[in-house]
Design a protein that fits this description.
This protein is mostly helical. The chain has one domain. Helix content is 77%, strand content 0%. The protein is built from 13 helices and no strands. It is globular, with a radius of gyration of 19 Å.
């Protein structure tokens, strides 16, 4: 697993993939942060973190699209499956490398918070707002990590099904968008049971509590479950190919 992890991390920084991902991630997060806080003169980061879910929906499929699609396209998938490591180790190595890149991007994006702390006492508009809530920011960052894990797990699963990277990106974004917006259909459905199911499945609905400073244990279990299920499905995909 460590060998796969090192191989993947090396590939990110010996090619343009890692640098492009970090550049796009930081640019989009900066734009969203400026539009949701600085331009309206507030230190409330709730809107920023809510919008970041949609940023992750765009950038993480770009990160995961090549994890297995590239291996199939270049015919190196068989080398991976016959390597002296288990399928679980292979998949986890890929997953952890994507997660590591995401964590690097998320850590670097914390630069965005500097203005609301530095200029809170000097900028008139921000000074009239409440001071930045550090615990709220930390809680939301943890929540973003959990959501990111889920998105990455879904992305590598879709990547394992096709050798077309563009198709992997489009399908992954479509699935993530559906999971984000599924709760919005509640207002059009009369059945209470169906509304409950849709709310349970909606990633956005479960994330809302974090923006208010409420650490939702149910959401924590949900995100970890999503990650576990799709990692398991990816492992099963490769296990089935070994015996064809």
């Amino acid at each position: 697993m460590i060998a796969i992890f090192k191989r993947e991390m090396r590939s990110y920084f010996t090619t343009s993939t890692g640098y492009v991902f970090l550049a796009v991630a930081l640019a989009l997060s900066a734009i969203v942060f400026g539009a949701s806080t600085l331009l309206i003169g507030t230190s409330d980061t709730g809107a920023y973190f809510s919008l970041m879910l949609f940023v992750l929906m765009i950038i993480l499929p770009i990160l995961t699209m090549k994890t297995f699609s590239e291996e199939r396209r270049t015919k190196t998938e068989q080398l991976l499956m016959t390597a002296p490591i288990s399928t679980t180790q292979m998949v986890m190595g890929k997953f952890l490398s994507c997660l590591c890149m995401f964590l690097i991007a998320l850590a670097l994006s914390c630069i965005n918070f500097i203005p609301i702390f530095t200029y809170a006492d000097t900028t008139t508009d921000i000074a009239t707002d409440l001071p930045p809530n550090v615990s709220l920011i930390i809680g939301n960052l943890i929540a973003l990590i959990l959501v990111g894990m889920s998105f990455i797990a879904i992305g590598i699963f879709i990547s394992s099904l096709t050798e077309n990277q563009f198709a992997a990106v489009v399908i992954t974004i479509a699935i993530l968008l559906g999971l984000l917006l599924i709760g919005l259909f509640n207002s059009f459905i009369e059945s209470y049971a169906i509304r409950t199911i849709l709310s349970w499945l909606s990633i956005y609905s479960r994330y809302t509590n974090f923006t208010y400073g409420i650490f939702d244990i149910g959401a924590l279990i949900y995100y970890l479950s999503i990650s576990g299920v799709f990692i398991f499905l990816t492992i099963r995909v490769f296990e089935s190919r070994k015996y064809r």
